[in-house]
Write a structure and sequence with these properties.
homodimer; mainly alpha; 0% strand; elongated; DNA-binding
DNA sequence: AACAAATGTGAGCGGTGCTCTTGCTTTACG
DNA sequence: CGTAAAGCAAGAGCACCGCTCACATTTGTT
């Protein structure tokens, strides 16, 4: 089991960290590790605090000294998964030359797919049906949850700046609909450094929706058994790319 | 609660149907009705046979006379939802003139969305993350599950026949990838009456993936709060339509 | 050494899916 | 018509779950 965790450690307190505090961190890490194992083998719905405690050799009630509730554990796993995905995608993206726009899109898409295929349950945790009666606290998931989108927005703006944007009418986009649909979103801080308009953002959303839909469809086997998932994905990846980036000689 | 059910009744046995058999059918219908209510209010994961039995005034063990297990009840709900969705989509589609290709696509898309928005938990049951340790028996879900796809395939073939197909290179489709990805699928009986090739089918899958992704994204709120979901959907619907149907004057 | 905070422990509550046995009622058949 | 079979309601019970509480123990600090 890979560590999966890579959340940046904002407050690297150099406090001495007594024996007790150190042990607490270790136990918390153990809990998260075992929980991830259970998640990977049995899925989120089957995640049981009692089972995790049992695996760690502690009494069932003891785990509540370290984890507030099952939902809280789920939240930690979700945040963890978000970071894991974000770093995987970012790593792949950053390994591609900035001026290779198509390459950057493909890198993001392929990284997303391979992460999702490798961590299907984690993927389901963040992009699957929401767990009933549970809502991830926005203040903890917002940053990692939008990390991938931030990357996409930057790429989208680079495409615009390079004059490589696919013509919106190729997607049949109606400006007034796009404005109504996502215009207000452009006020978000995420778009502060960009010069994106509603139509372009909508193009980006179409591409992202197609991309995410491709991965979802494959991971959740929504189309039943497909001869070659990888090949099909390459086709859909190309289609999603074309939603935003026009072919070179155009 | 609308009946939701509309599965065709293939064997309308005119058997006398004694008192006992009649009661059994009534109880089974009651169970499904109450289960659907619970599903609509609390979601699939919170569906409890005990709670359903309690609502029906029967002892917890009694419900097992009518339902084999919780999974079996889930299967029935899934099949039910499939039929409900399929008839909603089919009804909307059939109300559109056959030669209005764009209209037919839009009708399917809008019907899908409005059904999903109106029955979010049922939608999650069908197109959400699969329930762990549970796999819907293919022989019971295949027919209703592919009903919508059958409709799309027919439309796709009509588009091809009308010479209105979007040029595949607009989607950046690579023939060899498409062949590897979905070529073998064309052997399925679903495509018997059509003359579709792998590339065209892949186009259709791209369009469907984008369409389904749009709905999923909205119902599961994957993008967070969006100003106007309806307007955004119209944009993505148009984009998905353009994956298969070229503009009229082309 | 003494004290308070952090931690470990086990019992217990109400909930779940599911099985089994015990009677009772309805149906079907000789 | 009577009897045997099949269907059914009811309850106890098993193992699991999330979670709480009172209590004992350990630990770090004053």
């Amino acid at each position: 089991m890979d560590p999966l965790t890579a959340s940046p450690d904002p407050d690297a307190t150099a406090a001495p960290l007594g024996k007790r505090a150190r042990n607490r961190l270790a136990v918390e890490a153990d809990i998260l590790r075992v929980a991830r194992e259970h998640l990977a083998t049995d899925g989120a719905a089957a995640l049981s605090l009692r089972a995790v405690a049992r695996d760690l050799g502690m009494v069932s009630s003891g785990i509540y000294r370290y984890v507030e509730s099952r939902d809280e554990l789920l939240t930690r796993l979700i945040v963890d998964s978000y970071w894991s995905l974000a770093t995987a995608v970012r790593t792949a993206h950053d390994a591609t030359p900035v001026d290779d726009l198509e390459g950057r899109w493909d890198a993001i898409g392929r990284a997303l797919r391979s992460w999702a295929v490798g961590h299907p349950h984690d993927f389901a945790l963040i992009y699957g049906s929401p767990v009933p009666d549970y809502e991830a606290p926005a203040e903890r998931t917002e940053e990692p949850g939008t990390a991938v989108l931030v990357l996409l927005v930057a790429l989208l703006d680079d495409v615009r700046r390079a004059g490589r944007l696919t013509a919106p009418d190729r997607l049949g986009l109606v400006a007034v609909h796009a404005e109504a649909g996502v215009g207000a979103l452009l006020e978000a801080p995420m778009f502060a450094a960009t010069e994106l308009d509603a139509v372009t953002l909508t193009q980006g959303l179409a591409a992202w929706t197609l991309l995410l839909g491709s991965v979802t469809s494959e991971v959740f086997a929504q189309l039943g058994p497909v001869p070659d998932g990888r090949a099909l994905f390459e086709c859909l990846l190309a289609a999603s790319r074309r939603c935003v980036i026009a072919p070179a000689g155009d």
